[in-house]
From TrEMBL:
Principal location: Golgi
Organism lineage string: Eukaryota, Viridiplantae, Streptophyta, Embryophyta, Tracheophyta
Protein name per the record: Glycosyltransferase 6-like
Gene source species: Coffea arabica
Gene: LOC113697894
Record carries keyword Membrane: yes
Chain segments annotated as transmembrane: 21-43
GO cellular component: endosome; Golgi membrane; trans-Golgi network
Amino acid sequence: MSRAKAQTKQSSYISRDSSRSYFLAVFVSMVLVFVICSLTETLPSFQNRISTTGADTCNGEPPAVNRTHDPKQATFYDEPELTYTLGKTIKDWDKKRKSWLNLHPSFAAGADTRILIVTGSQPSPCKNPIGDHLLLRCFKNKADYSRIHGYDIFYNTACLDPKLCNVWAKVALIRAAMVAHPEAEWIWWMDSDAVFTDMYFKVPLQRYKQHNLVVPGWPDMVYEKKSWVSLNTGSFFTRNCQWSLDFLDVWARMSPRSPDYKFWSETLMSTLSDKMFPGADEQSSLVYLLLTEKKKLGDKIYLENQYDLSSYWVGVVGKLDKFTRTEADAEKNLPLLRRRRAEVVSESVGGVWEKYLENNTASEGKRPFITHFTGCQPCSGNHDPSYVGNTCWDAMERTLNYADNQVLRNLGFVHRDISRGSYVLPLAFDFPSEVLQRKKSGEEYNR
């Protein structure tokens, strides 16, 4: 009996203890639930943040073009007779290109001002020890300009036509690029040794509404002096249209791929007043076509000389320091120009720069849009004999660093000396106004 009572008491004790534990566990669980719910309300989960924020907000605005949309409807690309090479006529190109854009509406929007910059160099390594370095920097310069202005860029190192692996290579490449890029209204060719020196200047495309080829040149030198340097094919625009496709074929008939190449070489030498080198090059051939086919071509080819689409480098390099001082004065006088901003909107101050420089550069002239290192041959190193020693290479480095300063400014750095490309300094807030204040107060400014 006592043993039974003991067992009963023990069971009662265990039951009461279990009850207490149970109620305690329930209480703790309720507290935890309350805390978790409170945290959930005040601190949204990562999943909630994703659904609230959205990928578009995180990455900025949705992309302007849809590069994944390519409908199954047949286009000119499905035609077996389509070729990317010169000499093979493409008919109804304007209609075919318009049809492609209709099937790709995201590209159709803004197509009339879309530019593809095309450039390139030889497929083999440079013989000049610093040639590959210079070409890389020249390409970086073009990539920087393209990024700032929202242009696509294509760099080619392949010879697309075995008979056009010289100065004529650009014509074959432009032809292929037109077919491969129906979304682009303009194909902008730039020689590998052409450098952007005004990173904010934007090409006035509205000026060329009635034209299909824009090349730097001077009418009097073409039609009166008949000079082979009356225009420059180191930097020019070609509209992506039927007229241009046909013109490229006509132009290429004077190239080494033509059986009449020798005839054209002799004709150019006898026709152009100052041509000193034999051979039918692409620039001399274009001058000749303008001279002999003015009625057919003149209305469609625009000779641009209101801004420097291709400025001769010898007249530019000596002014770079003056340009730098003028631009520093502009930033001192105009807070808008020295204000920090995202690179993606740096184009917004281009007009301000242009207006200031036009009004304050009467003596030294405005910085050129593009500087062309004609005759330097950075890859082969066989520069014009009149350029002594390292004149070309030093000039290219200085010009590239000058242009690079306009890019680095958006990243908060600057080349203090454009002769020393690897040496950069961080910019102080409100530079250069902040520097002036230090100097006025007698505080030394060393970095």
